[in-house]
Records
---
Amino acid sequence: MKHPSQATLALQAGGDLGFLARWRTQHHLRSCERCRAEVEAFATARRIASDLAEIPELPWNRLAAEMKANIHLGLSAGECVRHGERPVRETPLFAGARAIVAVAGIAALLVTGIVLERPAPVTTAVADDGMVVQATSRGIQVRKGGQELRLNNPNELTPKDTVLYAPDAQGSMRARYVDPESGYVTINNVYAE
Amino acid sequence: MSEVTEPGLELADRQNRFVSDNLRRIFVQIYRIVGNVADAQDLTQEAFIKALQHQEQLKDEQKAAHWLSRIATNTAIDFLRRNGRASFCEIEDAPEVHGGSESPEQLLLRSEQRNYLEDGLRLLSPRERAALILRDVEGLPAEEVAERLNCSKATVRSHIANARIKFRRYMERRKR
């Protein structure tokens, strides 16, 4: 025979079970003396606990007067504090000088962002023999006297696909870009020799 | 001719009536949970101050009384959580106890009984203790206990069952 749990029996003793659980438990109790005794023990414990309802005889009038006075005092103190409280901010958050500083700060941030986002300026490296290696918008160009030789970047590179140029102190120039379709990274080094 | 009343006075009157109507009930309710007159006195005041600071809740007296009971229960539970457990004072320690109607023997018996119950309550968590008091001592239905404790009926049943099991085990141990 499967007995109900202790928790179920404890709830049964106080009539706290739901309809179905109560019906099942009552059905079980009819045939199980052990569980009936358990429920009776819980009921006894409940009766004893109800002794806690007793409260000591107190000078109620004096106690009540004290409590009422303290409640009014507490409420008055609360009122004083509320009236005395100053709002943390009396002026609008963004007004006058604050607004100017805020706008200037945002503008400075935007300008910095734009400058940092701009493609690298055209750079130039000059070799010892007067040969000039120069990065242009189309690629790396080697120039000496009236002659020029240029290594063009692919035409499909859009202005968004930034080409990074890095000149070298020895007179060479490096171009680095990423193919937008394949994702391959290409690095071209042009030496002025 | 209609009587014109000052709004401030009207509010003060309403507050006074609210306090007078509910003071004893709330004090007893808190006392049963914390088991100590001095603490019950402080917590009763705290509960009323909390309630009266929300004047809009006092418009409907019945709802306000119900709401106050919830505040009182929660205030008492918070106190027990902060202080670990209920500290039941000896009956003789209660301020100016009127012993006139009871003999010293009766007082002693009552004190012993309360100490006995106090030890049992110490085994319960604050919520279990509050659930036991509200259900088995005050006789509130489980639905109302759940509302007072701000939890579901299933949770409150679990608190009640646990509290009864612990309390019964305690009594059985003490018998041996």
---
Amino acid sequence: MMSLLIQDQKIIHFLNRISFGATQEEIEKIARMGTPAYLEEQLHPERIPDPLAEEKLRGLKTVRLSSKELFELYPPPNQAKSQGLTISPQMQGPRYVILELQQARLLRAVYSQRQLYEVMVDFWTNHFNVFAAKGADRWLVTSYDRDTIRPHALGRFRELLLTTAQSPAMLFYLDNWMSVSSDAPVRQLTTNGKPPARRGINENYARELLELHTLGVDGGYAQKDVEEVARCFTGWTIRRPRGEAEFRFEPRMHDRGEKVVLGTKIPAGGGMEDGVKVIDLLARHSSTARFIATKLVRRFVADDPPASLVAKAMEAFRQSDGDLKAVVRAIVSAPDFHSPQAFGAKVKKPLEFVASALRTVAADTDAAPPLLRYLARMGEPLFLSQSPTGYPDAGSSWISPDTLLTRMNFAVDLASNRIPGTRVNHEVDPLVLAAPEFQRR
Amino acid sequence: MAFSRRLFLKNAGLGLLALGLPPSFVVRAAEGEKKNRGRILVVVFQRGGMDGLNAVIPFKEPAYYSLRPSIAIPEPASGEERSIDLDGFYALHPALAPLKSLFDQRRLAIIHATGSPDNTRSHFDAQDYMELGTPGVKNTPDGWLGRCLTKNKDDSTPFRAVALSARLPRILAGSARALTMTSVEEFRFRNESFATTLQKLYATSGDPLMQGGAKSLFEGMTVLKQIASSIPPATESYPNGRFGASLREISRLIKANIGLEIAFTEIEGWDTHVNEGGATGQMANRLKELAEGLSAFYRDLGDRTEEVVVITLSEFGRTARENGNRGTDHGHANVMFVLGGSVKGGKVYGRWPGLEPEVLYEGRDLNLTTDFRAVCGEILSRHMGQKDLGRVFPGYKLPARPLGIVV
């Protein structure tokens, strides 16, 4: 009996870490097929049919549209007015696009059978954060989620990194699309009396690429490296941010001189490959392996990542050349993953808390604004982290008097069916969802 | 003191008696007056790295105009969109016009070329260092505003430190409990009947993080319930948006006399890498919101301005030279504003380091001549009566000669 309880506890711990909350159904499934087989299935989301999530997302039309279509169909509100658009979602312009994106994220977290995949999508969304309310990004983040993050969330880190580097959403968010070699020929912009376009690098993307996407802030780079990396990425731009939003390399903007990045010489005369070389250099750098391993262990195990587990994850990262499946497998299959200190040690972020509560009560929800507002009040309005760091993972960031109050109010409102658009199917005492234990996973 | 005590009884007492509250509470509140009407420090964090050189313009520095051909703010003597002369050398950005009269009334002090001495240009690290109060040291467990609370006084009021944000900022992290709230009105339970049970659940959870947060929450709620209806509405109109709203709530908490010592709020959107704008545009809009918010707050305080000092902080300044996109990249030294009734304002403090190539920090940024801890430390010691600055800013020694920013 005792060992059975421990076995159950282990399954619940495992599920709470690789999903948005254990459910009875999944607990039974693991009991039937065993954890290793279940994990392998979760590591291959393409093999898991997902009819419920698809059904839930059917009404969200914008998540299937291209950036160009979104810009044409949901122009800025003032423009919509002048075009005589009267359909109400279109009158909201790009705000409606972001709303559907938020709905889709929450619905998938609650209903998708590909739970580990959704956890990884959320992880990379924050790692490669783009603020969806910045200018043209209002129309670009839908494609960023669908075409950049999701195809690689359990793929190879190098591909994920390259795809983000070439995504219009990231190029716009971190300004690289406007970064121009200081030797570039000046284009004369005479339209509406603007002065000529100026030249010079913009180091915003280069810095965050090193600090947040790959090496980590203590990963061994200097200000000079930031500038050199920025020079390598000059010319990586967007055809037209509002409209034909596609990646484009513009040779006239590119700095063709020699660069030295982290001691590696990138010879003069290069073009787009300068940036690709930097991506390759960074993706295989040992600081990157350490940084990504540390963050993933923090996500799956503990805020203060155990060194032994980080070492294992790093090793998996290196041996597999950045295969994210291998890294995740190494972390969640390691014996220390099940150490008693790890049980319930992680605080649920707002998305994790809300999704797990909805899963616990088997809610029927449309994830409409009344529900999304709770997430915002708990500090995590989806896709709206203004800072490039994305939303933090450490528990202390998420628990404060005010966020606890919102969590308690949400628990009571949910359990008593007071959230419009959300219905409880499996009745639960609100105190269960509001309790301190339920704030952790 | 006698006068303020009388005033307090008149204002608060009559209000509460009119509401039919038990006299015992009034008596207790009056006894707590000394404690509950002390000095207050308000910290405003400008996240993203404000471009101090375009906020307070060194218009007599010729290099300023050559470094910034498209975003420089015209000097005060020029025509349209000109800056506002402060002292013949520095000028205010025109969007900061609401602060000019406070400067003239000597209630606003400005410190130029100030900030954190660490050379990081990472938003995250620079904000952390500034909030932890230990530039260069990351593993400091608590924020400096949190540290000035502990041991200083008793913890009888849950309102000693309030952050007007959902999440607790690093600057208040630590041993002392701090309250977070978005507004007085929203700080309440949807269903009171669960409150007692929840309070017990959290108190006995054995989970320090949850216990601490819930303790502040329930205690704060208890106090607010007693006095909520007597908290005066704001008398000034604040700029739209979260920043203005948070200053309005801070002013109400001050007037509620519930023992507020430290308040924190933030204003985002200073990371102007592209199209920063000059006299108008992106940054000008932020400055306008900042200035309108601060001046409304100051006016709203009425006769309480002597008790309050506001400090602004931003993690770093920006490159002296504009970049290729009419913007600026992450830099070093910056500008701080200090506002309050006891501030010796009307002056731009700090030694000006110049903008010539050879004096720029790492060849690109405004050099630092005043550590932000010198400014904060002086205000903590002179205004807040903080005696143990060594604990607030470990490893830092205040300069021998004080700046003299507060009376």
